Sequence to fold (575 residues):
Amino acid sequence: MAVARPRSRRSEARGRLLGWGLLFLLAAPAAAQEQAGLSPHGSLPLPCTACHTADGWRPARISRDFSHARFGFPLQAGHAAVPCSACHTSLEFAKVEASCAGCHRDAHQGELGTDCSQCHNTRAFGDRSTLQQLHALSRFPLEGAHRALDCASCHTSRAGASLAFRGAPTDCISCHRTEFQKTTSPNHPSAGFPTSCTNCHSTTTWAGSGFNHAATQFPLTGAHQAVSCQACHGDGVYDGNPTTCVACHQTDFSGTTNPPHQAAGFPTDCTGCHTTTTWTGTPFDHGTTQFPLTGAHQAATCQSCHADGVYDGKPTTCVSCHQTSFNATTNPPHQAAGFPTTCTSCHTTTTWVGAVFNHGTTQFPLTGAHQAATCQSCHADGVYDGKPTTCVSCHQTDYSGTTNPPHQSAGFPTSCTSCHTTSTWVGAVFNHGTTQFPLTGAHVTATCQSCHADGVYDGKSTACFSCHQTDYSGTTNPAHQSAGFPTTCTTCHTTVQWLGATFNHDGAYFPIYSGKHQGKWTSCAQCHSNPAAYAQFTCLTCHEHNKTDMDADHQGRAGYSYQSTACYGCHPRGD
Fold:
């Protein structure tokens, strides 16, 4: 049995070389024909082997390595599926144009330009999504049901072209004129409806569209929203239909008897009592009038005030309804006392009985114990209007009967407020701070009798001497009276302490409590040798009194004189 021996590498190389040589021999005639200008494809820069094989010249088989894109026209989507002969009708392939118009007739007759790729592509000649995107950039973007329509639905044919695009009308009536003219409920043409259609219809749905009444001068609210168009437009009038209430509700207005609208002269706009939510049982809003209802008035029936049938121009004063109550009231007697007929001074709409007069609105607001006093306490005489507000008008007896101190004999003012308050009458304290002599220091605790034992209150002297005459005259160290001390007392004494007074010698006169004289003296008499005249003093008692020496020390000093008063002209000095 013979065993097949494997081929050597040399024999494999020899086989491959033989194969390439055979391929070259087969391609040589075609190449020779191209060079000789005999190729049916004209000038085609491809070897014949790209399409033809040694097995047969026909049929041609295009090599997988062939790239149509090399020639400037990639085959994509729909172009990749068509046979070569669909575009290459001639064997001279180079004669085919690369533009769309080379294969596709312009059905638009140049209306949309030569760039077919704006609307068409190789994936689908009529791509709806692309067309809709382009339409969004036009004057008429496609919305609602318009998006599903075929182009021919609106772009009808025009002479010389399959469809018309440029200049196509965008108004509704251009496509929907038939629907507009045939509509009878309501009858659009006879009612003068606008041809824009958008007031009632939308692109989402044509049938069953609703008119937007809110865009008119009469928006529908409440029960008006549920009524049919015929309820108000049964006369066929839509444009210019009146919007007043009485235009539809005249029968209701004329037939109403409780209250009688027509006889009472009620306004015909109806909105004073009625609303669009409900027509029956709607209450009148009295708050819109000059007399809003408050308190018990809110529960009163219309007949309570309008039994006379007067609604418009009805008086709003209290007495117009409450005259009988005003006249019959005896505690206090309103009519006899001349009470005002407004009633609001004491009464409120919440309750009529048990009214309380607000004294705070008068010239005499009640404070303190006055708040608890009864009306009779001050108005027992029946006088209310013009009643005097002075204290003594009620407290004359108290004023005249007071003996400690005796108000009347002492000439106390009758205003009483200087000492008394409305909080308490007994135990009044006079505020001395309101006088020309405010009490300070020990004066604060002094009794009234201490100064007013003579019964004088008004015009009492405020000089210290008027109360301290005895103290002034009896003082001997120093002797105030004989020395001619001033009677004001405040030079040495204060209201805090009378004894132990200190005279301010340093500030007003000559420093003896400080400087070189501090501790150099023991009594006032050392300088004031005349106790009956403290204005006199001597310096020569203590200081060197040799006139010759003193003259020598002060030689050349202007104004020098060997006298104590002359010393005081220059001294004290720091040296």
In short: The radius of gyration is 64 Å.
